[in-house]
Design goal:
Chain C: Belongs to the succinate dehydrogenase/fumarate reductase iron-sulfur protein family. The structure holds 3 protein chains of 3 kinds. By secondary structure, chain B is α/β, with parallel strands linked by helices. Chain B is built from 18 helices and 21 strands. Chain B has a 5-stranded parallel β-sheet, sandwiched between helices. Chain B has a 5-stranded antiparallel β-sheet with strand order 11-15-14-12-13. Chain B has a 4-stranded antiparallel β-sheet with strand order 16-10-20-21. In chain B, α11 crosses α12, α15 packs antiparallel against α16 and α16 packs antiparallel against α17. By secondary structure, chain C is of the alpha+beta class. Chain C has a 5-stranded mixed β-sheet with strand order 2-1-5-3-4. Classes of the chains: A mainly alpha, B alpha/beta, C alpha+beta.
Chain lengths: 223, 670, 248
């Protein structure tokens, strides 16, 4: 299995597998976030469950982190390799004639998403880890009630952060607009279902990021 | 030297089998000590190289392109004949043999043609085993179409790209041998001379077209499969690089050149649009199955169309001259290639050509749209369909059959052939003549073989549609690999042929001197200037119809151009680099000699046969009045020319043709 | 029409090249692009300059020899054509046309617009065939029925002309459309099944060794392919490769 990463198709395949994993993660993340709009109580309960259930904390979370790191590292590795394969650059290249902007700029949309993730981790994940595993407070309580919803709302008070998140999600949408279909193509799924899948991919790539943006704005204006 | 065709004795249907059973073979352990050079990697050369390597010989293959896959066999569209009788329509080896001899106007060698028909079925088996994706029907079995006015469906095809698929098959077989190290492939190399040691072909001098380096390559036998010489006309359907140099060089070193005047002019090509034209594009003649050919009846309409005042669709049926249907009611638009081509030229020469150059006739599908449309309406139970609906239904059928050709036409001419008739005009397509070979495919130089279009072999004076691919592959896969063993069996103890002999020195010196001449001659004219001039003479005076006066003039004129060429040619750049002008110069220099021999051969042949129409030899009266008249009494022979220093001085050797299994008949398509 | 041409000139593989400007006049809209290049070259020869070297042969779109990058696209702005089939009616009087060789590290320039595509040859040699010797005794061609759909799909894949436009158009210089087409042709036919697993692994290994980039599914190759080879062929190759590799 490690040998497979030495081949171009193997790398594509690994890239696609990590992408599938990340897309599923994003979907569940979105679903839980949406609860914060619909029902703060449910949101708190689910958040607490996710934050304390051992399978998620000790199995899924590490896999996720590895997946994220792998996807980024491999993305950059591929970019470097591909640049090397290019040789001399064209004096005039009309890429727009044959491919989408998104497909040609995955490294940029991905790069911005990485920058966003760093901020996002600083905002949420690091304080969370700190509270739970350094301070050792696994209760999820603050002043007698669940802290999750409250913390979420707090974060979206400053407008600069909301704006930053919105930009981050625009890049996520751009990334997904190519990445969704691309992942299926990479694992060899291109058949009579592809057309339908492409429609679904487009919907996914737009609805999820727009939804995240909506949630951020909702909390900014409703705290 | 008397010509010995080495045709084995015995009844025609047993000749090849008996012969194979009795020739000498080379033992497998000895084959690895024997080298064979193959020049050209089209269907003939590619299949020969692959098969020889499979047998165990060390093969060195040469192509001027950057890959064997680019040889011009790739451009053949229509299909490949084989006597499989899958359609159960009465086809047989004998029938294919008969059709080929008859189609060749009785100017081919019976035994060779029979063998070709015999191995044709093996070709299809072999190609399918290689993964060639021939067209199939819904039952999963191979599909056939009928082609070129024969009475059975025996043509196998892969869309409109049969030549491409067959060549890729041979190329894949070559690749397998290249990977095994049994073929050493020399891409972007051009053979510039053959080396003869003790009377036998023992190697070649080649130029590396990237570095300009002159290389010596030795072998125990040399196989030339370098294609035809249609580019002697400058404009033809051949590839830009197609050339006669390899064939001409062996001719100058002792190989006789046979029937150079037999050229096939293909009737359904896209017309020339101006003087800048570099080549002509062919469209499959299958188009004539559904298209009707016409020109306007009245001169006023011709003028109006040329000046754009009238559209061809505005002419009523009465105002059109469907001249093939008029002249040949029995075969109509499906007369053989030579007849259709000459008839088009006749109309255009009379002034009825329909485009600006005056060299085009219409190929009209309107009635096919209607016929198919009505048929479809019936099938789909559409009652009282409107004319528009009928046309739409009919167009869909035509599109399914010829869509890629219609698209190609539209790209080139910028007119939609679904809405307005296509324009077509004949163009030089194939040369039946070539290097003389015996039954073994060996030339008059021992150890030097010639296969595919480059030899004169199997098509006589005219080639039937879908037979070129068959011949190339038959020679390369199934004939040469056997017959060459008979010759090479004497060479098992020879050992490697050294390349430092005086024969190699001399051959290389000759090649280098010629290149030096080109580079140092500070003339004023480009190669194309001379090539175009030669082409014009060939087309005007040695083209579709010829007469003694024109041919005599042509010989003198070609000689004069040749003299001017050697005085005034200018080649830019240097010899030690990629230099396309230098490559062209060498090829055109050879065409300038071949062209003269071509005219000389045509002048000698005072009869009309196949692709060769001699104006003095036409039927004078009766129902065939004006049609080609063959003269079997005086001209039933192969004209093999021996080089004597100047093309005009070539000496004629005759191989009399005997027809024991077929009765000679005058062709009639009335 | 009158045109300005910006053409890449490079003496040989080691020389440093540069773009050079030329003017051509009285170009007919009916000319093919290569005929326009012929006019330029005739002009250059007549003025004692070296003509521009470019690959070409059949001039009817099937040999795959011609290979220019015109105004930022392989084989120019038209679709479904090679450079030899591109006509000047696609351009306007006064246009400036940029003409470059196909670019990829695996396609080094030999001279001017001529590139070395031997990498493609070596990939084919690594497995682009069915291992069957020539013999007069192969089984009858009709002994294995092949479904019309499979035969047609194999044919569609097999129409690749090996020109390299896919590599030239790809931002990653990936050769996957080319390799995918060949792998697909044989994978779709029963004759090709026996050695299918070895074939795809060997061909992909050679492709990687040649220094082609990794496919990122931009789809540029499919758009620029003169023969319309579909991206499905890449997906099929991926499947074939993964199943061959994972099965071991």
């Amino acid at each position: 299995m490690s040998g497979i990463l030495n081949s171009s198709i193997g790398r594509k395949f690994a890239m696609a597998l990590s992408a599938f994993f990340l897309m599923i993660f994003v979907l569940q993340h979105f679903a839980i976030n949406l609860l914060s709009v619909l029902s703060p109580d449910t949101f708190n309960e689910v958040s607490h469950f996710m934050g304390t259930f051992w399978v998620i904390q000790y199995v899924i979370q590490p896999i996720l982190i590895i997946g994220v790191i792998f996807h980024f590292v491999m993305g950059f590795v591929l970019e470097i390799k591909n640049n090397k394969a290019n040789g001399v650059k064209y004096a005039k290249n009309n890429g727009a004639a044959n491919s989408t902007w998104m497909s040609r700029n995955m490294i940029w949309s991905g790069g911005f998403i990485l920058a966003f993730l760093v901020i996002h981790f600083i905002d949420f994940w690091i304080p969370e880890i700190n509270t739970k595993y350094i301070v050792g407070d696994m209760s999820g309580m603050h002043n007698g009630e669940f802290r999750y919803f409250h913390e979420l709302q707090e974060k979206f008070v400053p407008i600069w952060r909301v704006a930053l998140y919105c930009v981050g999600f625009v890049f996520l949408a751009l990334h997904l607009l190519h990445g969704f279909d691309s992942a299926f193509q990479s694992v060899g799924a291109n058949n009579k279902y592809t057309k339908g899948l492409k429609g679904f991919g487009k919907a996914y790539a737009i609805i999820i990021p727009v939804g995240f943006i909506f949630i951020a704005l909702f909390h900014h204006f409703n705290h | 030297m008397a010509l010995d065709s080495k045709v084995p004795k015995g009844p025609i249907k047993d000749k090849w089998t008996d012969y194979k059973n009795h020739i000498d073979l080379v033992n497998p352990a000895n084959k690895r000590h024997i080298d064979v050079i193959v020049v050209g990697t089209g269907l003939a050369g590619g299949s020969a190289a692959a098969t020889l390597a499979e047998l165990g010989y060390n093969v060195k293959a040469f192509a001027y392109q950057d890959s064997p896959r680019r040889a011009h066999s790739i451009a053949a569209q229509g299909g490949i004949n084989a006597a499989k009788n899958y359609q159960g329509d009465g086809d047989s080896t004998y029938r294919l043999f008969y059709d080929t001899v008859k189609g060749g106007d009785y100017r081919s060698r019976e035994a060779n043609v029979y063998r070709l028909a015999e191995v044709s079925a093996n070709i299809i088996d072999q190609c399918v085993a290689q993964g060639v994706p021939f067209a199939r029907d819904y039952g999963g079995l191979l599909d056939n179409r009928s082609f070129g006015g024969v009475l059975v469906s025996r043509t196998f095809y892969a869309k409109g790209q049969t030549g491409q698929q067959l060549l890729l098959g041979a190329y894949s077989a070559m690749n397998r041998q290249i990977a095994r190290g049994k073929i050493e492939m020399f891409n972007r190399h051009e053979m510039l001379d053959v080396v003869i040691v003790d009377g036998k072909a023992r190697g070649i001098i080649a130029r590396n077209l990237i570095t300009g380096e002159i290389e010596r390559h030795s072998a125990h036998a040399v196989v030339v499969g370098s294609g035809g010489y249609g580019n002697v006309y400058f404009l033809s359907t051949n590839a830009m690089g197609s050339n006669a140099t390899a064939a001409w060089k062996i001719h100058k070193k002792g190989a006789y050149f046979a029937n150079p005047c037999y050229t096939q002019i293909h009737p359904t090509c896209i017309p020339r649009s101006g003087d800048y034209q570099s080549k002509l594009t062919l469209m499959s003649e299958s188009l004539r199955n559904d298209g009707r050919i016409w020109v306007p009846k009245n001169m006023e309409d011709v003028m109006a169309i040329r000046e754009g005042r009238k559209k061809p669709t505005e002419l009523s049926e009465d105002e059109r001259d469907y001249y093939l249907e008029r002249r040949y009611p029995a075969f109509g638009n499906l007369v053989p290639r030579d007849v259709a081509s000459r008839a088009a030229k006749e109309r255009c020469d009379a002034g009825y050509g329909v485009n600006a150059t005056g060299e085009a006739v219409y190929l009209d599908f309107a009635s096919a749209f209607e016929r198919y449309g009505k048929e479809q309406a019936k099938i789909h139970n559409i009652e009282n369909p409107s004319p528009a609906k009928i046309k739409e239904l009919g167009q869909a059928i035509v599109e399914a059959k010829y869509g890629n050709l219609f698209q190609m036409y539209e790209k080139i001419i910028d007119q939609n052939p679904y809405e307005t008739p296509m324009m077509i005009y004949p163009a030089v397509h194939y040369t039946m003549g070539g290097v003389w070979v015996d039954y073994n495919l060996m030339t008059t130089i021992p150890g030097c073989y010639c296969i595919g279009e480059a030899n004169f072999s199997d098509h006589g004076a005219n080639r039937l549609g879908a037979s070129a691919l068959m011949q190339g592959l038959a020679d390369g896969y199934f004939v040469l690999p056997y017959t060459i063993g008979d010759y090479l069996s004497a060479d098992i103890r020879t050992g490697k042929i050294p390349t430092d002999s005086k024969e190699f020195d001399e051959a290389e010196k000759e090649v280098t001197e010629r290149i030096d001449f080109f580079m140092n001659n500070k003339g004023t004219k480009s190669v194309d200037y001379f090539h175009k001039k030669l082409g014009k003479i060939m087309w005007d005076k040695v083209g579709m119809s010829r007469n003694a006066e024109g041919l005599t003039e042509a010989m003198a004129e070609i000689k004069a151009i040749r003299a001017e060429f050697w005085k005034d040619i200018y080649i830019p750049g240097t010899a030690n680099e990629m230099n396309p002008e230098l490559e062209k110069a060498g090829r055109v220099a050879d065409f300038l000699e071949l062209g003269e021999l071509f005219a000389k051969d045509a002048l000698m042949r005072e009869e009309s046969c196949g692709g060769h129409f001699r104006e003095e030899s036409a039927e004078l009266d009766g129902p065939q009045k004006g049609e080609a008249k063959r003269n079997d009494e005086d001209f039933a022979f192969v004209a093999a020319w021996e080089y004597k220093g100047e093309p005009g001085d070539a000496v004629l050797h005759k191989e009399e043709l005997e027809f024991k299994d077929i009765e000679l008949k005058q062709r009639s398509y009335k | 029409m009158n045109l300005t041409l910006k053409i890449w000139r490079q003496k040989d593989s080691k020389a440093k090249g540069q773009m050079v400007d030329y003017k051509v006049t009285d170009i007919s809209e009916h000319m093919s692009f290569l005929e326009m290049m012929d006019v330029l070259n005739e002009q250059l020869v007549n003025s004692g300059e070296e003509p521009v070297a470019f690959d070409h042969d059949c001039r009817e779109g099937i040999c795959g020899m011609c290979s220019m990058y015109i105004n930022g696209e392989a084989h120019g702005p038209d679709r479904g054509v090679t450079t030899c089939q591109l006509h000047m009616r696609m351009f306007n009087d006064g246009d400036t046309i940029t003409i470059e060789p196909f670019r990829a590290a695996a396609f080094p320039v030999i001279k001017d617009l001529v590139v070395d595509r031997m990498a493609f040859e070596r990939i084919q040699q690594a497995g682009g065939y069915i291992s069957v010797n020539t013999s007069g005794n192969t089984q009858d061609a009709n002994s294995i029925p092949i479904s019309k759909h499979a035969a047609d799909e194999a044919m569609d894949a097999a129409t690749c002309i090996g020109c390299g436009a896919c590599v030239a158009s790809c931002k990653n210089s990936s050769a996957m459309l080319f390799v995918g087409a060949k792998v697909s042709q044989y994978a779709l036919l029963p004759q090709g099944q026996v050695e299918a697993a070895d074939r795809v692994q060997n061909m992909v290994a050679q492709m990687d060794l040649e220094g082609f980039g990794n496919c990122t599914n931009t789809g540029a190759c499919e758009v620029e392919c003169p023969k319309g080879i579909s991206l499905e062929n890449i997906a099929r190759m991926n499947r074939e490769y993964l199943s061959a590799t994972l099965k071991g």
